[in-house]
UniProtKB/TrEMBL annotation:
Protein name: Uncharacterized protein
Pfam families to which the protein is assigned, alphabetical: PBP_GOBP
Organism in which the protein naturally occurs: Drosophila rhopaloa
SUPFAM superfamilies: Insect pheromone/odorant-binding proteins (SSF47565)
InterPro entries referenced in this protein's UniProt entry, alphabetically: PBP/GOBP (IPR006170), PBP_GOBP_sf (IPR036728)
Length: 242
């Protein structure tokens, strides 16, 4: 069956982490079943599902849809036992699971899941996937100290600007979040302001760059319009050097 555009965010998220699922078998049947008491897959319901991430954290606009859909479509959720930790981590990564742990695990003493539990748990997953903190937690060769420094610096940035964090992966010419690099590099004491020299050994220990044998001789001469831009340009040079 051809995948419908704009459907439930779970479909998009699942496909984004498992490219082999270009089309989901029985998807239409499952969605129609879960929407049976609400008019089926009408244009209005399709639009509402497309706004899933915008729904209130505690209010599911289409009651019980999430539990019905997840239990019908994916092995990561069971109507009796709730979310399967190993399968959630396999699909979305352990940082996402850890960030949403309190919503994904059943309350102590509880032996059965609920529509509210399924909704709140998956709503958290949908909103944490790609979140800067989970991206930072997934960074390889970066120490816990460095990850915490990055998170602390993000706390000083307006939340509306956090969406720019993903752009760092492409090493753009201009820093996506101005002065962010200056902030966390300063916390890690990777640049010595007194000697005006980069502490490359510390950089390697904390952030895993530059690569061994990389050609970095000209990186310290990079410059920008201000101190923050210069920090970013020089650090980016070290990080990209081969």
């Amino acid at each position: 069956m051809q995948r419908r555009s704009g459907l439930f965010v779970a479909i998009c998220l699942w496909i984004s982490v498992n490219g082999s699922l270009a089309y989901l078998q029985h998807e239409g049947e499952a969605i129609n079943k879960c929407l049976k008491n609400y008019g089926g897959l009408t244009p209005e319901n399709n639009e509402r599902l497309g706004r899933f991430k915008e729904w209130s954290e505690n209010y599911e606009e289409i009651p019980c849809f999430t539990r019905c859909y997840l239990s019908d479509m994916f092995d990561l959720y069971n109507n009796q036992t709730g979310f399967d930790k190993a399968k959630v981590e396999d699909a979305f990564g352990s940082p996402v699971y850890e960030a949403c742990r309190r919503k994904l695990e059943l309350d102590w003493g509880s032996s059965q899941s609920s529509c509210q539990h399924a909704y709140q748990g998956f709503h958290c997953i949908a909103n944490m996937d790609g979140h800067p903190f989970t991206v930072i937690d997934s960074m390889a060769n970066v120490t816990l100290t460095a990850k915490n420094a990055m998170k602390e610096c993000l706390q000083d940035v307006h939340r509306n600007d956090w969406s720019r964090f993903a752009a760092y992966a492409n090493y753009p010419v201009n820093e996506p979040i101005p002065c962010f690099s200056h902030c966390f590099l300063s916390k890690l004491h990777i640049f010595d302001e007194r000697t005006r020299r980069w502490q490359l050994r510390t950089m390697k220990q904390q952030l895993g760059v530059p690569a061994k044998g990389a050609r970095i001789s000209g990186c310290h001469r990079q410059s920008g319009k201000d101190r923050c831009a210069t920090y970013y340009k020089q650090f980016t040079c070290y990080a990209m050097a081969v």
